[in-house]
Amino acid sequence: MKKTHQTSEKLAPKVLAAHSAAKDKRRMVIMAVALVALAFGYFYSELKADQFDQGVQSELPGIPAEQVEYVQLPEIDTARIEELVSDTTDEDRVVLEREAVDFLFPIARNLTEAHFVELEAPELDEAGAKELLSNPSGARGKAFTARGWVVTKRLRKPGGGRPNEVHGRMVLEDFTSVYFIVAEDSAFEKPIVESDYARFDGLFLKAFNDEDAEEPGEWIQGPLLVGPKLGRSYKALGELTSLPLDTFIDVQDDDLREGITGVPHRALWTTMAFARDRDRENFDWEGIPELDGNIAIEMLKNGSDWRGRAFRMPVLKVLAIWERDPGENPARMERVTEGWIGSWNWSGEAKVLRFAKPGAQGDIRDGDEITGTGIFLKNLAYEPAKGGMRLSSMVVLDELKKFDRPIDRSMDQMWLLVTTGTVLMVGLLVFLVTRDRKRAEELQEKLVARRRARRKLQTPANSLGDAPSA
Predict the structure, then answer these.
(1) Residue 157, SS3?
(2) How far apart are CA 115 and CA 134, in angstroms?
(3) Would you say 223 and 143 are in contact if contact means Cβ atoms under 8 Å apart?
């Protein structure tokens, strides 16, 4: 029994020390695992977002680049035009001076749309036409734009080596008459014919008066412009605060079997005009759904159920955005913004949306986060940069706002946490090693002291009667 008791007594300090060390090691392991898990979760979410950005770029088509045309404006001798024409009386206005046409037409026929943009040509209406008729001398050679229906159009051959000309008259939407002289129709373009709606950019020559071809004896006055050609145009939609019931009557969703069919012109511009003009203050935005991943998939699967419906956008990421001149359109928009938006939280095929928006791009750039509101138009087939065919929902946005997220300090905080945790763990490790070493030394000292004590007890003391040896 005594031997067993002594063995237990020897082992007790070792067992306690080992047990304490094991508990400390478990704490360190738990702390290390928690720290690694926290860092892994954060970096995984960042990696997933980066992978979405990189992966989705191959799903997008090539980004169109707007061609910028630099032009040199011609110098027009307005005094010379004034010398060549006469339009102070009604009798003068019946005459078309050939020499004046020969002077201005070679200049006007070589102008492009970019020239007229640079010249800031105003659009003619009834008031503008009356001003030209009342004071023609003050506007010789100035640029103007006219839109309306072509009433008459006749080919003229002036001879003498001069190019053929087309003379005619158009009626604006306010029933104002404007006369035109343009170059002969190109054989490579579908010609504008009588009753077509057209756009005409030209330089003012004189006030002109001609007999109505349909009502002989009736004379019609109007400004005479000389320009390069007639262009196809569309009657103005005007202000749209509601969508007409037949807006989407001819809209069909694309599918991957039929391929790309494009966006119906009328439906697109009607929706764009509505997005520009709608009454935002009195619209119940709270009553419409927020576009999440599930709704994005529903749009892609059942486009007809969502056509024309409004939605609110959560915070989405701009994958690509650009601004461009849309060309001639019935909404009379000079700039539109287009692009792609999406979210890495969305799954499946509905990861991205194609969008169009009235107006300029503003300060929004690729990679920005945005919110806004819009209207679903159709599902659109397109060719991604990596090839093949994809399907995406196309929406018209009436509002696109940059989302300024509070400054993200999470990365700094994460590094601070990792650094602090590492320092603490290293410090704790040094502390534990030092403590265990000290305990081991103390234990060793106790064991040595006990052994000495036991030896002292086991060794018989010298007898008092024994005499020292001689």
Answers:
(1) coil
(2) 27
(3) no
Identify which of 50, 140, 56 has the alpha carbon closest to the alpha carbon of residue 320: 56
Closest CA to 351 of 54, 63, 46: 54
Q: Residues 30-74: pLDDT tens digits?
A: 766 665 666 555 555 555 555 555 556 667 887 777 677 788 999
What's the CATH architecture for 265-402? Answer: Beta Barrel (2.40)
The span from the CA of 105 to the CA of 167, in Å, is 12
pTM assigned to the model: 0.74
What are the backbone angles phi and psi of residue 44, rounded to the nearest 5°?
Answer: -65, -45
d(CA 227, CA 145): 10
pLDDT score at 227 = 97
Task: Please give the structure tokens belonging to residue 200.
Answer: 């005409």
Backbone φ, ψ for residue 242 (5° rounding):
-150, 155
Q: Which amino acid is at 8?
A: S
Helix locations, 61-109, DSSP H? 78-84, 90-94, 98-108
Quick check: 274 and 240 in contact, CB under 8 A?
Answer: yes
Q: Is the pLDDT of residue 7 over 90?
A: no
Q: How confident is the model at residue 463 (pLDDT cuts 50, 70, 90)?
A: very low
297 vs 359: CA distance, rounded Å: 28
- The C-alpha R_g of the chain, in whole angstroms, comes to 43
What is the phi/psi pair of residue 403, to 5°?
-95, 110
Distance CA 409, CA 112 (A): 53
Distance (Å) of CA 274 to CA 226, 280, 358, 367, 447: 35, 11, 10, 28, 93
Judged on CB neighbours under 10 Å (0-12, 13-18, 19+), 388 is exposed
Is residue 19 exposed (0-12), middle (13-18) or buried (19+ Cβ within 10 Å)?
A: exposed
Residue carrying structure tokens 């980066």:
50
**Helices and strands per DSSP (H, E), number in the chain:** 10, 11
The whole-angstrom separation of Cα 353 and Cα 295 is 12
Whole-angstrom Cα distance, residue 110 to residue 90?
Answer: 31
Distance between CA atoms of 230 and 195, rounded to whole angstroms? 13
pLDDT per position as a tens digit, 176-205: 999 999 999 887 889 999 999 999 999 999
Q: CA–CA separation, 289 vs 296, rounded Å?
A: 11
Residue 218 phi/psi, 5-degree rounding, is -95, 130
In this prediction, residue 415 has a pLDDT band, given cuts at 50, 70 and 90, of low
Into which CATH architecture does domain 78-232 fall? Beta Barrel (2.40)
